[in-house]
UniProtKB/TrEMBL annotation:
UniProt keyword annotation of Cell membrane present: yes
Classification via Gene3D superfamilies: Ribonuclease Z/Hydroxyacylglutathione hydrolase-like (3.60.15.10)
InterPro entries: ComA-like_MBL, ComEC_N, Competence_ComEC/Rec2, Competence_DNA_uptake, DUF4131, Metallo-B-lactamas, RibonucZ/Hydroxyglut_hydro
NCBIfam families in the cross-refs: ComEC_N-term, ComEC_Rec2
Repressor in keyword set: no
Alphabetical list of CDD domains matching this protein: ComA-like_MBL-fold
Identification of the protein by name: DNA internalization-related competence protein ComEC/Rec2
Regions crossing the membrane: 262-279, 285-303, 315-335, 341-365, 372-393, 399-418
Main location: membrane
Lineage: Bacteria, Pseudomonadati, Pseudomonadota, Gammaproteobacteria, Cellvibrionales
Compartment(s): Cell membrane
Keywords, ordered alphabetically: Cell membrane, Membrane, Transmembrane, Transmembrane helix
């Protein structure tokens, strides 16, 4: 009990300390003149308008590490200090079902703010900092071999395997590794540390011949090799775990003591948690310790030899990690089993030794080092070709078990990995397989669910009836290759158990509404497509929504309200979709402006009244006229806009209009994804993602209209 209380107090103190390092709310979105030091090599991003991203610390003492974008032509220099106007905000990311929580990752990774450099004032530009930084020293140490590896086609993967530097791995390569379940090989882990330990042990054995009385030379040399390599890899969580377990084993050898593997395992976990109590928020911590834990549980007291051991260990890891993969929403592919049977021995026995040998020989025998690097490069090319074949064999199965289902699956894994001879243990497959078939809630017949997804400064709304699904807009894409379809929409569809779209509506061609449409259509082809205006970059030809007929799904009416104006394009070409009727209705308006609102009032005013309104044009002052708001008379209005967006959406004057109307206001940038559930002809339930917030986040339940009262 005392240990538990001490651990809780320590974790709480650590959390308070990290929270105190966050950017003060009063400084968010404002220009701040600060000195900052470049801590990491600038990473070039973007295609059409390249820019650079890097980590930095600042002269604002209360502020921790920040992640900055630099939009000048030449990148900043590692280790140099600059004076500039910075525009910063707290760690923040999308909050949508199944989506990667970037804000959470930023905080637990040690960032206190993100932002960009607005104007460099050149006051101290180019001046190197004399303050020691382990991170800068690490990058300078590995700078020469990193640059040397760039000459090889697979240099990005080689840098990831050697230095845990994954910044240059392409999205296509990441997708291949994820499809085949081999992305874990890109993280410095036990396999890497184990190989370095053996090399250090070998050097120690050679040294013993010259110093016969130095009995501890072998374990000390092996440990020194491991520490140096772990430092080069940046002491990631899997590296910390492997390093601690190696240290315990070497210490036991040196002291001639027996220490069980379970003692080493839990001590490694304790050390990692002491170093960083927030580590459990990282997927690497969970997968690393889960994989080692199931292997120890499965092989305790048993020995495996040869290929049978590899087959068994791979089977154990696949089975053991299923509940963890489900809880993190990572999906699973049957192709991962054969892919890892090939990849693990190839990387561990051939590729890594070639890379390590080349790294050691590079300063003293460059010719041989290049030969070893070339061998590793060729083997990586062959590996990716084989993984490409395996990836086509079976698609990733997305599953999102409930807490109960995942808990039962964990118990099932423990039972399945018991030694042979346990009667009827095969029955444990039932709860394990049931995890893949957890029923996903759907609206009852005649009911309607409308989910406004958090896609930043963009729109994506999912409409569900009992048997059908409609998606209104897909959100933006960016020049860096990032898009909201892959990041938010597809994970949300998987979470809701939707594997097909009956209808996709692209209100108009603007990038924040239809930018991610090509990425979505490449993964899931809608049965029918409606567009507000022609969109040339699509592989499908859509019907114009303005002339479309109304229809009914599961008792729910759908109707496009005609907004056709002469030569309308862009915002005013937006599809306006009315879903439902009476007290169970939602009006989706795209980016229509005051001119179209007046047209709707003149021609179809009787159809505008709706319970929920997607605010026109994200709440811009060019829309939401008083007459239009009065005609719709929404009890709920949602603004699909990014937090602290540069457009000032929603405008304060617009908020005041909705306030006077008596509407309750929602903001995806503040509340995350918002779901409205209509049952039996009325709005019965509202759920929003940030109702459950992390302790380091500011409350999401504050009012943005004076009448707003948060349900949370």
């Amino acid at each position: 009990m005392v240990a538990f209380l001490l651990a809780g107090a320590y974790a709480a103190s650590y959390g308070l300390w990290r929270s105190a390092q966050l950017l003060p709310l009063a400084l968010e979105g404002k220009d701040i003149s600060l000195k900052f030091r470049v801590l990491t090599p600038p990473e070039q991003r973007g295609e059409y308008r390249p820019y650079y991203r890097f980590d930095a610390d600042t002269d604002l003492k209360s502020l921790g590490r920040v992640r900055l974008n630099w939009y000048e032509e030449k990148p900043p220099v590692l280790g140099h200090v600059y004076q500039a106007q910075l525009r910063l905000k707290r760690p923040y990311g999308y909050r949508s079902p199944g989506a990667f929580d970037y804000g959470r990752w930023l905080f637990v990774s040690g960032y206190s703010a993100t932002g960009y450099v607005r104007r460099s004032e050149n006051l101290t530009k180019g001046e190197a900092s004399n303050v020691f930084s382990a991170q800068i020293s690490r990058y300078r140490l590995i700078a020469a071999p990193r640059a040397h590896l760039d000459r090889y086609p697979n240099g990005a993967i080689m840098k990831a395997l050697l230095f845990a530097d994954r910044s240059d791995i392409s999205s296509a390569q990441w997708q291949l590794f994820q499809q085949t379940g081999t992305s874990h090989l890109m993280a410095i882990s036990g396999m890497h540390i184990g190989m370095i330990l053996l090399w250090g042990w070998g050097f120690g054995r050679v040294a013993v011949f010259f110093f016969p009385r130095a009995l501890l030379l072998r374990p000390l040399t092996a440990m020194l090799f491991c520490v140096i390599y772990a430092a080069m890899a940046g002491f990631t969580v899997p590296t910390q775990r492997a390093l601690v377990m190696a240290a315990i084993g070497l210490l036991a050898y040196g002291l001639r003591r027996h220490i069980s593997v379970w003692q080493a395992y839990f001590l490694a976990m304790l050390v990692v948690l002491i170093v960083d109590p927030l580590a459990p928020h990282q997927i690497g911590f969970n997968l690393s310790f889960a994989a080692v834990g199931v292997l120890l549980w499965a092989f305790q007291g048993r020995r495996q030899r040869g290929g049978g051991g590899l087959l068994h260990s791979q089977w154990v890891v696949v089975i053991g990690l299923l509940p963890v993969l489900g809880m993190w929403g990572l999906g699973f592919s049957l192709a991962s089993f054969p892919a890892n049977l090939l990849a693990i021995p190839l990387v561990g026995l051939l590729i890594l030794p070639s890379l390590f040998g080349g790294l050691l020989l590079l300063p003293i025998w460059p010719g041989m080092a290049n030969s070893l690097f070339a061998v590793a490069d060729s083997l990586l090319t062959c590996l990716q070709a084989a993984l490409g074949i395996a990836g086509q064999w079976h698609a990733i199965i997305q599953f999102h078990p409930s807490v109960l289902a995942a808990s039962l699956a964990l118990v099932a894994v423990v039972i399945l990995l018991l030694p042979r001879g346990i009667p009827a243990k095969w029955l444990a497959f039932v709860p394990l397989l049931a995890m893949f078939y957890c029923p996903v809630p759907r609206p009852a017949k005649g009911d309607l669910w409308a989910t406004v997804l958090d896609v930043g400064q963009g729109v994506a709304v999912l409409i569900q009836t009992r048997n059908t699904s409609l998606l209104y807009d897909v959100g933006p894409d960016f020049s860096s290759g990032f898009n909201s379809a892959d990041a938010v929409v597809l994970p949300a569809l998987a979470t809701y158990g939707i594997d097909r779209l009956d209808t996709l509506v692209l209100s108009h061609g603007d990038r924040d509404h239809a930018g991610a449409a090509p990425a979505l259509i490449a993964k899931i082809t809608p049965t029918q497509l409606f567009v507000g205006e022609p969109i040339s970059r699509l592989s499908l030809i859509g019907k114009r929504c303005h002339q479309a007929d109304s229809w009914t799904w599961d008792g729910i009416p759908f109707e496009f309200l005609s907004t056709s104006l002469p030569n309308s394009s862009g915002n005013n070409a937006s599809c306006v979709l009315k879903v439902g009727e009476g007290a169970a209705s939602i009006l989706l308006t795209g980016d229509i402006e005051a001119e179209v609102e007046r047209h709707l009032l003149e021609s179809q005013a009787s159809k505008l009244n709706s319970t929920v309104l997607l605010a026109p044009h994200h709440g811009s002052k060019t829309s939401s006229t008083r007459e239009f708001i009065a005609a719709v008379s929404p009890s709920e209005v949602v603004f699909p806009a990014a937090r602290l967006n540069s457009y000032g959406h929603p405008a304060s004057s617009v908020l005041q209009r909705y306030e006077r109307q008596g509407s309750r206001c929602w903001h995806t940038g503040l509340h995350g994804t918002i779901q409205y559930r209509f049952r039996r002809g009325e709005l019965s339930e509202i759920n929003y993602a940030r109702a459950r917030r992390y302790y380091w986040e500011e409350p999401a339940g504050f009012e943005i209209c004076l009448k707003f009262k948060s349900e949370g």
